[in-house]
Amino acid sequence: MPHVTVAFEDPTAPDLAPMHAARIAFNSEGYDPADVFTPPVANLNNPDMRFRVARVDGAVAGMGALRVDDGWGEVKAVFVDPAKRGAGVARALMDELESVARGEGLTRLRLETGHIHHDALAFYPRLGWVEIPRFDPYPANETSIFFEKVL
To answer: Phi/psi at 78 (nearest 5 deg)?
Structure first.
């Protein structure tokens, strides 16, 4: 079994650029640009973000971020290299983001994902997330699916 580590890293680090490009391309494929909400790299460096990188045996395998709000958080930018899927990377990222949220005193987490991201739509409920109605700041559309997890 590969060794997965998850830790804070600077989202602008040069070795993360290919993963960011893959994340943005994946989240944009099949969607109208108006329905794509994946954050650009610059937004992941904001003071309200808690950015994490997953590595498998030292190589970048995935990333995710937690945007901290008033009493709750939003999981953003979760992406795992397709070649590393099935190795526990996504679960390790989500476990870390939940741990960070608890450490910040947050009581619930939310996220938005696209309706054609079938792996994500199956994955989140396995971790205890439940589908919820749209939440702000997302506009009403036919492509977004929203989830929440009470911590």
So the answer is: -75, 125
Q: Where are the domains of the chain?
A: 4-150
CA distance 132 to 138: 13
Strands 59-68 and 4-8: unpaired
The helix, strand and coil proportions of the chain, stated in percent and rounded to the nearest 5, come to: 35, 30, 35
**Fold that domain 4-150 belongs to in CATH:** Aminopeptidase (3.40.630)
Residue-wise pLDDT tens digits, 113-149: 999 999 999 999 999 999 999 999 999 999 999 999 9
**The pair of three-digit structure tokens given for residue 8, joined into one six-digit string:** 């804070």
pLDDT band at 1 (very low <50, low <70, confident <90, very high): low
